[in-house]
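One thing: can you check what follows?
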Amino acid sequence: MKHFNLKTVAVAAVMTLAAAGALAQNVAIVNGKAVPKARMEALAQQLAAAGRPVGPEMENQLRDEVIAREIFMQEAQKQGLDATDDYKNQLEIARQAIMIRALFDNYRKTSPVTDAEVKAEYDKFVAANGGKEYKARHILVETEDQAKKIIADVKKGGSFEDIAKKQSKDPGSGANGGDLDWASPASFVPEFSEAMVKLKPGEMTQVPVKSQFGYHIIRVDEVRDAQLPKLDEVKPQITQQLQQQKLQKFQEELRAKAKVE
């Protein structure tokens, strides 16, 4: 009858448990070197940040990828490639990129955009874009004489829309009979806006309106109260914009404080 050495059995059991624990923490052991599961998690986060979310079905692919990277890295180290200046410089650039990203992420967490800041920015938007909106048409020509003739032709019964299609040098609106769609006065150059807001629906400018683009003949078709989006509808965009502004200011402050010789 065979006798078992209890001490040997205990040691084997401990080694088995240790190996199981190692496998639980690691993806694999490659040439005696552990490949931690944290690498899979980091790679998954990197892919997600690049717009490629990783689902459970891709776990085996991720595992194969991190194992392959470890194999290739070990071979590169065997060849001494990690001692080259090129490797060291690229490693430093990568290290800087990671640290800077972490710095900016931490700033966003510690200096978030508040609801009050979003509301204040929205109120500024409303103040600048509120009031009236105009559905107008225009015909743009190069000379004042051309504009005066068009005004006379329209007064005689000529079609504003047809003349715009044939003579307007604004290709965007000209093809649509001069239609500029709904817009606030702030959307146009001052000379155009000042003349437009004086018109009632159905009225046309009686004299050419000169701007940096040429001479305009303007007709207002309709006027309405500005149709602005609600705060909740634009809150994500405003928040993102304010976050970017705060981050830019943070960067500028750091540069201003730095002593560069």
Summary: The chain has three domains: 21-83, 84-130+232-250, 131-225. The CA atoms of residues 81 and 87 lie 7 Å apart.
